[in-house]
Specification:
There is one protein chain. By secondary structure, this protein is an alpha/beta fold. It has one domain: Purple Acid Phosphatase, chain A, domain 2 (4-Layer Sandwich). Helices cover about 20% and strands about 30% of the residues. The protein has a five-stranded mixed beta sheet, covered by helices on one side. Strands 4-5-6-8-7 form a five-stranded mixed beta sheet, covered by helices on one side. The mean pLDDT is about 95.
């Protein structure tokens, strides 16, 4: 039995596409990587039975969301953060190190609005891009199987 997660970042008040993605993908959990962390609260109201994990971004003030979290994904753990505290615009080295320190197989971040689906130092790196602003909106689908196999995919929203 695999665990499915829908991962969003940088919604900036626009959750219409994210809601549609959750409806069609039907994940076991939702992860929001900040910038408008309160959008995660609105998404959770729409899907109260789906566990929601969220972190604060550099544009998030007056939110109870933390800067970083460790999220269980079946047999593996994911380190989630917005990324601005790890200088991800320039390198993902410190992000990967933070994930390794916490025993995480995946490091998820946002902030740059640029999708990233790569690997470094044995850690899967995932940035879903931006789900809320710009002309190229994306999100990430994640599946982890019982043996710890990880599948990550960047998916584009169909804009209308």
């Amino acid at each position: 039995m695999s665990i499915k997660a829908a991962v969003f970042s940088d919604t900036h008040g626009n959750i219409e596409y994210a809601l549609a993605a959750v409806r069609s993908y039907r994940p076991d959990l939702i992860i929001h990587l900040g910038d408008h962390a309160w959008d995660a609260d609105d998404m959770h109201l729409e899907f109260p039975d789906i566990p929601m994990f969220r972190v604060r971004g550099n544009c998030d003030f007056a939110t109870s969301a933390r800067d970083r979290e460790v999220v269980p994904l079946g047999p593996v753990k994911a380190f989630i953060t917005h990324g601005h505290l790890y200088s991800v615009r320039y390198t993902t080295d410190s992000l990967v190190y933070a994930a390794q320190e916490r025993g995480c197989a995946i490091a998820m971040y946002g902030h740059t609005h640029i999708p990233d689906n790569s690997e470094l130092g044995g850690v899967k790196i995932l940035n879903p891009g931006t789900a809320g602003c710009g002309s190229h909106l994306t999100w990430a689908a994640v599946e982890v199987n019982d043996l710890g196999g990880i599948m990550t995919e960047i998916r584009e929203f169909k804009l209308h």
